[in-house]
Amino acid sequence: MTLANRSLVTIDDLSNREIEALFSLADEMSESMSEQSNVCQGKILASLFFEPSTRTRLSFETAMHRLGGRVISAVDIGATSLAKGESIADMARVVGSYADIIVIRHPWEGAAKIVADYAGVPVINAGDGGHQHPTQTLCDLYTIKKERQTIKGLRIALWGDLKYGRTIHSLIFALARFGATVLFHPAPGLEVPNHVIEKLATEYGGELKRYQAPDQAVKGELFPLDAIYITPISPHQLAMIPDISIQVELKTGVDALYVTRPQKERFATAEEEQDLNKHYPVVDKKLLKQKEFKKTLVLHPLPRVDELAYELDADPRSMYFKQAARGVPIRMALIALLLGSKEVSLPKEADSFAQKIDYLPYTRDYGVRCPNPRCASVQETESKYIKPEFKIVRREPLTLRCIYCEHGFEPRYIASSDWHEGRLDTKKYHSADSHWIKKIKPENLIIFNSESEAEAHGFKPSSYAKKHHGGNDDKGKRGKKR
Ligand code: CP
């Protein structure tokens, strides 16, 4: 099997069988490191890191050197022509004409997808804002698999900043796909975003139980949970039975604790920073003394700040430096596969608990834009050429997912392109939660985020435009984030 010319933008770009095959190649390479020095001879990797990095950048560069290839790099937007207003697409086309493969880290969510769309060579996402970090996820899964031989059926707790942690977002989906049960223990205010939860609930076949208020959280000797995703291989009724049963289930032990630092650089409000200083949960010797953590692997993508005590470094359960070290063979295997320098055979069996849903696309030149201010598609330099594109993930309530940053949201207004004989006075827009959402055919659907946006395109409010939103004028408001 070849992965030549493919890109890795999100963890969904690799199937479970491909991930298993990549792990086998990484094993083979780490056992014979000195024999790999001709694998990518003559190839060039462009290493573009527009946010700080130690592990990801240096392990990618080490990996390419170990494979006998060469590296060109840019590590500061200010030292590139992006600082002069060049678009990501133009940069991608140019770098793609110099290098055989591109690794990019960028603060905008969806930036790696744009590079992959335009570069003409394989592109690897080394972290795009708070969206995803799929190669970190490969290192995380590889470490769990090496230490526990399987991921299926394990109970894995995600700890800390589950809102902005991109490693968390790609790991959640991967764990669900491999059949793990996922326990969510966020710092207050840093819970997993709804759009991630909704994707997990609709596409991964398990049961999700969410604890909305702290007093409903599962309390006891274990840490209080915000939510639990129960893999489909666990008894189906587990999600339905009282919290106490989940507590009993968890007392049998947590297989891995995945700790993350607060991603302060992405905090949107001063309150988030204030809350953080008071309430960020810490993993230390005292916590790990509890019996449910007796055999728990402690993982962390690093860097750490104060959430993971140094006193644990010598503890055999601590995996974080192994995780970082394993980044080299994992990234060697990935580069060699995407460049077509290596091929692998796929394992016959690899369970996947993901359910592929072919959502209807929504693409129009005008109307709704992604409401996520960190989305690459809405940035000034990129919105000149990017056509907004969404998946319609639900009709009622109408819910869109941006194909760049994957944020989900409920737009507020709809119209039909099939207005009577094109007469302007019948161009009407309606509230998205009115009965019109059932009447308008998908191919005729026009979606707006605000009244002003609809009116700027010559649409007038119908009697169903305001009814469901209490008659408020929402001019300029963005769609509600989910
Ligand atoms: N884990 C990780 O992405 O580390 P760096 O930011 O140092 O690359």
What would your notes on this structure say?
This protein has three domains: 11-129 and 324-338, Rossmann fold (3-Layer(aba) Sandwich); 135-322, Aspartate/ornithine carbamoyltransferase (Rossmann fold), CATH 3.40.50; 360-481, Aspartate carbamoyltransferase regulatory subunit, C-terminal domain (SH3 type barrels). Helix 1 packs across helix 12, helix 2 (55-66) crosses helix 12 and helix 5 (134-148) packs across helix 6 (166-177). It contains 14 helices and 19 strands. Strand 3 (101-106), helix 4 (111-119) and strand 4 (123-128) form a beta-alpha-beta unit. The longest helix is centred in the first third of the chain and has 16 residues, at 16-31. With 482 residues, the chain is an alpha/beta fold. Residues 469-482 have low confidence and may be disordered. It has a six-stranded mixed beta sheet with strand order 7-8-6-5-9-10, covered by helices on one side. The chain has a five-stranded antiparallel beta sheet with strand order 11-12-13-14-19. Bound molecules: phosphoric acid mono(formamide)ester (CP). Residues 53-57, 127, 133, 136, 301-303 line the site of phosphoric acid mono(formamide)ester.
* Major sheet summary line: 6 strands, mixed
- Tell me which CATH architecture of the largest domain applies here: 3-Layer(aba) Sandwich
Count of separate structural domains: 3
Instruction: Tell me the overall shape.
Output: globular
Rounded Rg: 24 Å
CATH top-level class of the largest domain:
Alpha Beta
Mean pLDDT: 89
Classified in CATH, the superfamily of the largest domain is Aspartate/ornithine carbamoyltransferase
Task: Identify low-pLDDT runs.
Answer: 469-482
Give me the CATH fold name of the largest domain. Answer: Rossmann fold
Total strands: the figure is 19
End-to-end separation? 39 Å
β-strand percent reads 15-25%
Which small compounds were modeled alongside the protein? phosphoric acid mono(formamide)ester
